[in-house]
Amino acid sequence: MPNGTSGGGRDPRYPLDTSNPVRVYHGRRNAIIAVVAVLVIAALAIGIPWVMNRDSHAAEKGTAGNPVVIGVVGATDPQWVEFKKQAEAQGLYVQIKDFQDYTSENPALAAGDLDMNEFQHLLYLANYNVSDNQDLQPIGGVAIFPLGVYSQMDSDGNPVYTDISQIPEGSTVAIPNDETNQARAIGVLKAAGLVTLKNEWTAFSIPQDIDESASKVKVVAMKAEQIANSLKSDPTIAAGVINNDYVADAGLSAKDAIYQDDAESEESRPYINVFVVRADDVDNPVYQKAVEIFQSDAVLEKLQENSDGTAVFANNFTTAQLQQYLKDIEQDVRDNQ
What we know:
Elements: H1 27-57, E1 68-72, H2 78-89, E2 94-98, H3 105-110, E3 116-121, H4 122-132, E4 136-144, E5 148-151, E6 172-176, H5 179-191, E7 218-222, H6 224-233, E8 237-242, H7 244-247, E9 259-260, E10 273-278, H8 285-294, H9 297-306, E11 312-313, H10 319-335
Parallel strand pairs: 1-2, 1-3, 6-7, 6-8
Antiparallel strand pairs: 3-10, 4-10, 4-11, 5-8, 5-9
Helix pairs in contact: 2-9, 4-10
Keywords: Lipoprotein, Membrane, Palmitate, Signal, Transmembrane, Transmembrane helix
Subcellular location: Membrane
Pfam families: Lipoprotein_9 (PF03180)
């Protein structure tokens, strides 16, 4: 019989020795595994400490590698250019992020895409917090941009009255009829002593809240753009409250106002422009330092220059005061929903 296998089975003449295991050579495979293991161990040795310590190795907030990101409208305005210059001179690095409208900055701050923003007054912030169920907070005051009272003009274009006290009793004063400026204008007239209200003034006061019998003047509401013209053409209008958007268009200057908001008055509080942060960051020393630098004379001088001399600085309010004002205004918002 020829040597070999039969029927696919093992040749019985050569039985399998099971006394020792079959040895297969795996040298190449083992070498590859060993190399891979060494590489994995090395990667872990380098990678695990990096993962564990990456937060500790991150650049501190306010440094060149991790600047304070501030959302604004008008990043190239002179006050922001000066602010960045002054901040870096003091070792604080900031990134001024420009926005084209007023609707995106608060959501960006709430989402953590910004560290701070500065574009709004307290009334705007209160409306946002209430409507969006947020808790953004003011950390420092900047300024208010006053709403002024302007006198009737004579035929030569000169003001008939040069002081608010000269407005005759029983005369008529025009105010804007849009919701925001109307309430503010009533507050200005109240602070000037021209009207008395039936109840406390709020940012939602309307002409019906005026106690006419106890007031020095009568009030008529009209479109904001019509008020300046009425001072020149309607002899029954002794004075008018003109918001800043229409002052220059009327050939007037803010300096022509015979009365304007006082940043310290209760009626002006909702219109204080503020730096805003998330609630957890109110006590952040880096952000507080940023506010202090902005409130320096060098920066405020540029802000005043950009406002054509109309800004009334509001840099003396404490954070606690601004937070309380915001809380009160938010309650007014809820009460008037």
